[in-house]
């Protein structure tokens, strides 16, 4: 009798254990399935430009809609800080790492660490100097192509004299490198003069305004402002206003800007800016789509450039501006 009782007890214990394991496995797999995708995003700066504000907003909104947990950090102009932030996110075992680099160079160790950790490394906005075996995919702008669009447009203007002021963005970012290479190569090929060529830390509008004001004070004549974003172009216009220099549609200076924020396009329509080259910041939905494809095991394009266009006084309308998302 005693033997039967103890066998029954052992059996009962076994069934209880099996049920518990099964439940745990079920819970584990359910937890795994329900676990939110966590994405680490290493952003450049919080208040860098209107473009950057739209870009950050796009990540926040798209990730919230997708149900992703977003861990966004800001380098605030410090490349070394971005590197350590990326390493920290890898330590925290995020599911995906998205990097928008202040600098193009210096990302190999982070990319290798992500690869070792099995974390897909995605570049957004600005392509980094990485071999294709070190990143999973990218959603970036082709900044050289953007600059070449501006050069091609400038050629059509057939100015009496090409005396160009270049207001560059953050030194060493792929956005600055691409856009500056385009105008520098274009000036060489077309025998144009670059009378000023300086990069503004943080793409800063005030720095651009001061640089143009100082240049005007030296008596240097110029016929083109090539500003590598809308904010710096607006800074240049403020300096020209203060000096009584006319620009835009009926002025002596052509103003070229990049980004095509809504307000920048309004300046094209009003004749202040002569050309605004689109650099589209709405990467949130693109990255969500990419991550969902990766999660589903689908093959993704490794090097995806964002489609972008240009706007000048002849092509812009209020309806176009009103329809824009940023
Ligand atoms: O990387 C894109 C550039 O960064 C934009 O042209 C500029 O406005 C932003 O700050």
Automatic annotation (TrEMBL):
PROSITE patterns: PROKAR_LIPOPROTEIN. This is Simple sugar transport system substrate-binding protein. The keyword Signal applies. One of its GO terms (molecular function) is carbohydrate binding. Residues 40-274 form the Periplasmic binding protein domain. It holds the Pfam family Peripla_BP_4. Keywords: Signal, Sugar transport, Transport. Belongs to the bacterial solute-binding protein 2 family. Its main location: other. Residues 1-19 form the signal peptide. It is found in: Cell envelope. PANTHER family: D-ALLOSE-BINDING PERIPLASMIC PROTEIN-RELATED, GALACTOFURANOSE-BINDING PROTEIN YTFQ. SUPFAM superfamilies: Periplasmic binding protein-like I. It comes from the Bacteria. The lineage of its organism: Bacteria, Bacillati, Bacillota, Clostridia, Lachnospirales. Gene3D superfamilies: 3.40.50.2300. InterPro entries: Peripla_BP_I, SBP_2_dom. It comes from [Clostridium] fimetarium. GO terms for cellular component: cell envelope. The keyword Transcription regulation does not apply.
């Amino acid at each position: 009798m005693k033997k039967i009782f103890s066998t029954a007890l052992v059996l009962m214990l076994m069934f209880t254990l099996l049920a518990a394991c099964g439940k745990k496995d079920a819970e584990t797999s359910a937890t795994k399935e329900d676990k939110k995708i966590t994405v680490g995003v290493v952003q450049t700066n919080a208040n860098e430009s209107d473009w950057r504000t739209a870009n950050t907003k796009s990540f926040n909104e798209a990730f919230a809609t997708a149900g992703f947990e977003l861990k966004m950090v800001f380098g605030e102009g410090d490349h070394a800080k971005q590197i350590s932030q990326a390493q920290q996110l890898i330590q925290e075992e995020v599911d995906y790492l998205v990097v928008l680099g202040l600098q193009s160079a210096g990302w190999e160790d982070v990319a290798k660490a992500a690869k070792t950790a099995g974390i897909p490394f995605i570049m957004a906005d600005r392509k980094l100097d990485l071999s294709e075996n070190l990143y999973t995919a990218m959603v970036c702008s082709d900044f050289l192509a953007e600059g070449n669009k501006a050069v091609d447009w400038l050629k059509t203007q057939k100015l009496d004299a090409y005396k160009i002021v270049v207001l560059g963005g953050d030194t060493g970012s792929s956005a600055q490198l691409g856009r500056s290479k385009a105008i520098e190569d274009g000036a060489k090929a077309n025998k144009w003069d670059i009378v000023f060529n300086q990069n503004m830390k943080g793409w800063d509008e005030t720095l651009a305004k001061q640089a143009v004001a100082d240049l005007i004070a030296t008596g240097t004549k110029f016929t083109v402002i090539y500003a590598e974003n809308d904010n710096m172009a607006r800074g240049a216009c403020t300096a020209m206003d203060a000096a009584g220099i006319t620009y835009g549609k009926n002025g002596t200076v052509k103003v070229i800007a990049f980004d095509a924020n809504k307000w920048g396009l309004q300046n094209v329509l009003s004749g202040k800016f002569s050309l605004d080259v689109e650099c589209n910041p709405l990467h949130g939905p693109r990255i969500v789509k990419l991550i969902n494809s990766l999660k589903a095991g689908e093959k993704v394009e490794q090097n995806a450039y964002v489609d972008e266009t240009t706007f000048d006084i002849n092509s812009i309308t209020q309806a176009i501006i009103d329809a824009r998302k940023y």
